[in-house]
UniProtKB/TrEMBL annotation:
The keyword Transmembrane does not apply. Gene3D superfamilies: Spore Coat Polysaccharide Biosynthesis Protein SpsA, Chain A. It holds the Pfam family Glyco_transf_34. One of its GO terms (biological process) is protein N-linked glycosylation. Belongs to the glycosyltransferase 34 family. One of its GO terms (molecular function) is alpha-1,6-mannosyltransferase activity. The lineage of its organism: Eukaryota, Fungi, Dikarya, Ascomycota, Pezizomycotina. This is Glycosyltransferase family 34 protein. It comes from Hyaloscypha bicolor E. PANTHER family: ALPHA-1,6-MANNOSYLTRANSFERASE MNN11-RELATED (PTHR31306:SF10). One of its GO terms (cellular component) is mannan polymerase complex.
Length: 311
């Protein structure tokens, strides 16, 4: 019995067909041309977007300003708190702004004074209104008195701000060696506030949204500063970081007190006592020394409602 043997392969197999390199070269050149065209189109679109509207697209209907007031209802009547909220809401409605009313109990202050709540409240507002340009913090014991003045026009317009800024001014009067910068332009300022006779007065201040504002608020709210026994808590912590951090001082615009933080009584800086037509009146210190915030605010409450035509 014979077994079939496998066929032997030829020792001279036919040569493989030669592959043409013409078509792959054409394909590569075509791909390169397409990639180059796509890059060129992308570059043109990017440049046009920068010229027309910048890199950020702000959704329609975004309020340009958010008025933030931390409420501490303890020791105040419901009518008083409602009056404060209504005051902000009427002003915001007139100008297309938004309002934000957290309470001191919304934030874990780890035993620090309640005044510290303003810092996380602004940080909270930046998260809640991620496209709004300005956050205006205004203390509870104050009223907006002039409905015609806007944050953008009355304060934050760069040219207006350059005319308002107090340059080469001691941060802590009368003789602090650290002074406000003398060369800042209005569009470089991200933090605007005033002074009273004792120093920085953060009962009314404005912050421009951006990466710097987050850095600043996180620095101010650092647990080290909250645990340190500053005599005036967050006020002295603010004065400390402004004087020792040039990155913060370089964004600070100090303006006259009556522009957005006029006081009803003493403790103002120079010409800082409220006069008719001013944007704000603050009853600074009315919660101490036997004073009555509601009684002090009552005549001005009638006045702002007349100005705003609120029935």
């Amino acid at each position: 019995m014979h077994l079939a043997m496998p066929a032997r392969k030829s020792s001279n197999p036919p040569p493989y067909a030669t592959r043409s390199t013409r078509f792959p070269m054409l394909r590569r050149s075509r791909v390169q041309a397409i990639v180059l065209c796509a890059c060129a189109v992308g570059a043109v679109i990017f440049i046009l977007s920068q010229i027309v509207g910048g890199s950020e697209r702000i959704p329609s209907g975004t309020p340009p300003v958010v008025v933030v007031t931390v409420l501490d209802p303890d020791g105040y009547s419901k009518d008083y708190i409602n009056n404060i909220k209504e005051n902000r809401m009427e002003y915001a409605k007139k100008h297309g702004y938004a309002t934000f009313f957290p309470t001191v109990t919304d934030y874990d202050l780890n035993g620090s004074p309640n005044s510290w709540a303003r810092v996380p409240a602004i940080r909270h507002a930046l998260t809640k209104f991620p496209h709004s340009t300005y956050m205006w913090y205004l203390d509870q014991n104050s009223l907006i008195m002039n409905p015609e003045l806007t944050v953008e026009g009355h304060i934050m317009n760069p040219k207006r701000l350059e005319g308002l800024m107090i340059r080469d001014q001691s941060i802590v009067p009368p003789d602090s060696v650290i002074k406000t910068f003398g060369h800042l332009k209005g569009n470089q300022v991200d933090f605007v506030l005033t002074q009273d006779k004792d120093g920085l007065a953060q009962g009314s201040f404005i912050i421009r949204r951006g990466e710097w504002s987050k850095f600043f608020l996180d620095t101010w709210f650092d647990p080290l500063y909250r645990s340190y026994s500053f005599q005036k808590a967050d006020t002295h912590a603010l004065e400390h970081i402004v004087q020792w951090h040039p990155t913060i001082l370089s964004k600070l615009g100090l303006i006259p007190q009556r522009i957005m933080n006029a006081y009803s009584k003493e403790d103002a800086a120079g010409d800082g006592i409220y006069k008719d037509g001013d944007l704000v009146i603050r009853f600074a210190g009315c919660d101490k020394g036997g004073r009555d915030c509601a009684a002090e605010a009552e005549p001005f409450s009638k006045q702002w409602k007349t100005a705003f035509r609120v029935q």
